[in-house]
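Chain A, query sequence.
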Amino acid sequence: MMGPSHALSGAAVWLAGSWALDQFAGYEQSPLMIAVGTAVCAGGALFPDLDLSGKVTRNQGGATVARTFGVVSLFVAEVIEKISLGVYHATKLSKDPNRKNGHRTLTHTIPFTVLVGWGTTALCAAYGKWAVIAILFFMIGLALRGLFDEWAKRAGWVIVTLLSLGAAYFTYLHLPGDRGYPMLGLAMGVGCFVHILGDLITRAGVPILWPIPIDRRMWRMIGPSDRFSIRAGSKFEVVVLRGVFSVVSVLAIIGLAIPAVHRHFTDS
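Chain A, predicted structure.
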């Protein structure tokens, strides 16, 4: 799927999950916590595509996420792509084809998703405010780049960077650490997993079973047949899927807001 669809799917899943937890588990979150979780999950739903790099020195090419912070994020994408390609070649079996790039390899696996979620929580717990600000800054930037793609293109990476920095610092000042740190890790992991599911329904598929070897292949791409798969950027993705994600997000926001408003007037 395209970047905006990935970001919107992450936001929809987090909002729907927050509503479900509030309704069925009594887990209440402040509006700020919901907003932060949604932004991080939306950014996390773009994060795996940092394995698609472009032309760093020209600030061109790459995935949507790779252009978020200009040449800096393009360079990060280049490094991740080369690491992914290295892992592919180090672990591939006899029937795995040779590859010249690492897109849709390591970062599109379940182990990577778990590692990202756990690593985010561990970094926040170990390094405190600086890790929190850095992670929020990066994820909010990805969310802005994905959810508001056309605006981000017009505004440029400098504006996106400044807004991300300001939002990250404001969030840090008001986000409680006891529940905030694990939430960031969970949102990152969920976002990455949602990304994998999104690419799973495309023609190219993803190596979701890695590192389980099957028939002398470690990197088997799993996905539906061409008849049932979706094409990236197709009308079905842009109109239908994004429409569904938008409706789910709006309904979840309404479902979360109504009880909060009711409690406010009842208490007053």
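The mean pLDDT is 88. The two ends are 46 Å apart (CA to CA).
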